[in-house]
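INFO  loader      accepted 1 record
INFO  loader      residues=551
INFO  predictor   begin
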Amino acid sequence: MPIPDIETLKKEVIDSPVWRAVFRGGVWADTPRDRQAHISGNVWLHLHPAKVRPRALKWTYTWGLGGLAFALFLLLALSGVSLMFYYRPVPGLAFRDIKDLEYAVTLGKLLRNMHRWAAQAMVVAVIAHMVRVFLTGAYKRPREFNWGIGVLLLTLTLFLSFTGYLLPWDQLAIWAVTVGTNMAGATPFLGNAGPFGGLMGMHINNDVRFTMLGGTVVGGSALLRFYVLHCIAVPLLVGILLILHFWRVRKDSFSAAPYSANEPKVDVWPNLVKREYLAAVGLVIFIMVWALLQNAPLEIMANPNVTMNPAKAPWYFVGLQEMLVYFDPWIAGVLLPGMIAAGLIMVPYLDTNPKGVGYYAWGERPFANTMFLLGVTMWFTLITIGEFFRGPSYAWYWPWESWYGFKPAPPPTWSVFGPHGAAVLPIALGVAVLGALFTGGIFLPKLIQRELPGKKLLLGFLALVALVGLGGMAAHKLTGLQVGFLLFFCGMVFQFGFIMPQRHIRRLDWARYLVTMTLVVCMMGVWLKMCARLCFNIKYVLTVPAVSMNI
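INFO  predictor   done
INFO  writer      dumping tokens
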């Protein structure tokens, strides 16, 4: 009996009822029909269209960031499930289990290192993906809803990483989570330390912080709740939103614009798919090599009676912690992050510029791109200051300064003093200053109908600020560094808070203009408050003790 050749056996297997019941299609013939059927008949690949524009294949267009973020999520799920077999969320056992993973469990250290660094990489990848989507205008119609889903996924990615921060149960974990959850206690109405919390009957044992921790301190209940959130609740929600996100990407079509009219599309298989697989393999190799070279941090076992100094939040929340230097917790930890998330979700409905969709176009979208990148730069600037310029007692330390020895706070430069040794403006003056800044900052750019000469105005404004700074050096003994901060912050606020809106968005309808300028003025308010604190040591502009409100 003759032995059939390989191709005949292959055809018989593929055409058999069992194979055809499991897999769609027959023998691969490498035709356009087969390439499209391979995409539509695959549980993973059917989320892609059969064909895409050539621009979508360019690494320099998407950078593969969305796919890399999803690959990191899958890597985290696989490594996390493996770690769960050797971890018990109990204070007396959690730290010991982490130690066992490092020294007793086969490949335990590698798994933990990969999980930790993949989590950090996913935060960076999701942020970078959002930046790419914004700069290519891929949030515009018909993708407004999916952009909002992406913002929610970014928020959940940060929260997912934060909930996992506590699980090693070491000193770094317990105090980082303590710092983070203390901000929740300052939530207006819902936190015992927030504005109007007392009026709502909030105390340390019934507010939103208590709900997060299951107690008044970071203890066993908090560890169990964070474990459930990190391993079940948040990943489930992220998975649901990812399904919706991918589905809308498919239904709304890829955002890459054609290079020319009537441009022919190319097959997704194998052109795009092979790039995605290569990127995923390269990413896994990178994470594995990094995990072999760099161990995940682990301090001594958690001890609530020994406070770390400085106690810092995870790096992606250090920006919020740095804002605590300039604002009360209810502003730094609740109001401003909420406004950032809401502002990002509203962006597609505020931006009426039809240009720059599906490609990088700085000149066609100067205001949107500049303000967005300014916000991202501000965020990472705050992170950099908090990580590298804050030492014991969260005082300012230059990188070359030693942390040993006590460093006193700078003396206040105003004659009106308030809590914590910092200057506080009187209530009437504070209300007047805030009112003037908000009303003037919001309405002036639109009320001036003609475009003003920006460079001349900026130079004149900086000259005026320099005169004020020199007067301050003489009258209040300001240092040259403080005057430099004053020039920098005031120049930034004038350029981006007045000149750019006056040039680019004064023709918007009133509804969009008011919302946009409110967000812009609040962003500029962060710079101004940093200037007031760093230059004049003014902690609060307005204080209302009756309702625990400080601004």
